[in-house]
What does this fold into?
Amino acid sequence: MTIKYELIKKSTETNARLGKITTPHGEIDTPIFMPVGTRATVKTMTPEEVKDLGAQIILSNTYHLYLKPGHELIEEAGGLHRFMNWNGPILTDSGGFQVFSLGDLRKIREEGVEFRSHIDGSKHFISPEKAIEIQNALGSDIMMCFDECVSYPADYEYTKQSMERTTRWAQRCKDHHKDWDKQGLFGIVQGGMYRDLREQSVQDLLAMDFSGYAIGGLSVGEPMETMCEVLDYTTPLLPEDKPRYLMGVGTPDYLFEAVIRGVDMADCVLPTRIARNGTAMTTQGKIVIRNAKYSKDFSKLDPDCDCYTCKNYSRAYIRHLFNVDEILALRLTTIHNLRFLIRTMENIREAIKNDNLLEYKDEFYKNYGYSED
Amino acid sequence: MTIKYELIKKSTETNARLGKITTPHGEIDTPIFMPVGTRATVKTMTPEEVKDLGAQIILSNTYHLYLKPGHELIEEAGGLHRFMNWNGPILTDSGGFQVFSLGDLRKIREEGVEFRSHIDGSKHFISPEKAIEIQNALGSDIMMCFDECVSYPADYEYTKQSMERTTRWAQRCKDHHKDWDKQGLFGIVQGGMYRDLREQSVQDLLAMDFSGYAIGGLSVGEPMETMCEVLDYTTPLLPEDKPRYLMGVGTPDYLFEAVIRGVDMADCVLPTRIARNGTAMTTQGKIVIRNAKYSKDFSKLDPDCDCYTCKNYSRAYIRHLFNVDEILALRLTTIHNLRFLIRTMENIREAIKNDNLLEYKDEFYKNYGYSED
It folds into this structure.
């Protein structure tokens, strides 16, 4: 197996764990937050800048790259790493989530999903085999099985059928993937908010022995307690010697709760998306930098931040840039937000090492809680 | 005087000259191309990136900064250098060009110009004194006198009146500027395409003794031969111990012709603007990178380029980024175009040193001439 997980330390007070994942393009310290580079670029940033933030792995998107520029073109370019000039580990999602959330007029069959492109309406068909074929062409270090992420809320019967189909698709993905020395493949646990379905999903996927396991179908609009509950009964079922990846989580509070419940990896477009809308995440809560009250605020975005933006620019300058639609505004805020989450995860790893994660969490919340705009 | 020009070498075959300008924020090798940072940012770039291109001075814009965020705010921030995190020399234009080209419903009086903001229609009045006041607040190294740049074509009578008013305004600018140790001030030669008016303008401005002299009112739509003719009879009238700045020139051919006629400094938004529209300047001519023919072209933008973009990315990747509206596309092409012009000017300086500028020009044109899209 090309993907190896090494457990370094377990928290005594929570289910959090410190670990290391080995991939063909380098090692990853876990728990980790993965910046998202949907279309073969982390929006607004160069790969060198992403690396300078402390990012160790990025995520890219099968559905989007399949439509544009096409996976064959990327394969011809020498694979995604070379195409986009990122030589660290890359995880690609399976396209399932986007097919279901972006594709128009989708028809789900046992064979796969027929849909129309959200760009030009053209007709496409993605099967589990096709999802693997695309990801093989991209050459990512970690691939994901093609799955259906049911929306929230969903009834028991539909969730059950969908989870069972996702399991059958996982088997087909596994059968279709050949070069396990080059790329790992994760199974995705589904089953909505139903404990017996989650248990069934885990049990069936474990029998197939994947490189790691993702927990899908969370962070889809359910209350945080529901997510925590699902994690509480799901994560302990996953094997200790494989990485666990919670899909679509990217706010500090959700990251804390996930890590405490044994999650190793998470990703989300949120920090980069809100950055481009002018919202900065800081140790003192979120600030909407466009607000007039920052027009003569010559302090940095976050007094406790070590990022390029906070070292060199004032809130007043960044607000001005947003105010006149300058691209540097988007860059500076993106750098800051990603560094904020990555540094928070660095602190979380340090806290697990020192076995004081709950203490660090309390301290973090005490600061983060107030002064939300 | 805070601005000093040192003549290093004169070309024997042309009027080109190699020199060095000293400013409060450092030295500038001339002839030089100055990237434009209209709104306190060179569009898409950080100051460090601009410096890495070899840029030694940038230009910023009085009219735009006066409207947003306001010159008082920038003064409060510690001046433009500190506000935008650029510690090299800055030249600010006087706002004249934008008042006339962007301001709505402008009324020109002897006192100054009344106009409405192109952003929100608010009413403003800029006089020569006000233009200096704004530039004093910005703290640029080189300020420009408030002038009127007449459009092309313009009749003799209007051009004469306008030039004479610009001269009277120059005197008022000079009288209003106090701290000559901190900031230099350039006079702007006007007079359209009329030789006697240009001569009159030069004569009157020289009597006032500015830090340097700009040639305005060119590159406004006239044929290249007309510009060359005006430079042919204007530049020799300017003093040898002061820098000469041709405003608004930024294509390689115009830069060659200007330098050959004794110009030391030039600026233009063109390289950055066409970059954002997907056009790259290369040693083999311009290429429109959005074109389908580059979709599988894995070569670099320019085979002879040493920029970050050409070192790391293919045409196919940059085309993909444009195709999916990614900001990195604008960044990579901007970096390339600016580096292209800056490197061309480096080569021009080297050629003046070796006294083979005309030979270098022929060689440059031979390559640049073909393969325009």
In short: The longest strand of chain B covers residues 4-10. Chain B touches chain A through 36 residues (CB under 8 Å). Residues 50 and 331 of chain B are 11 Å apart (CA to CA).
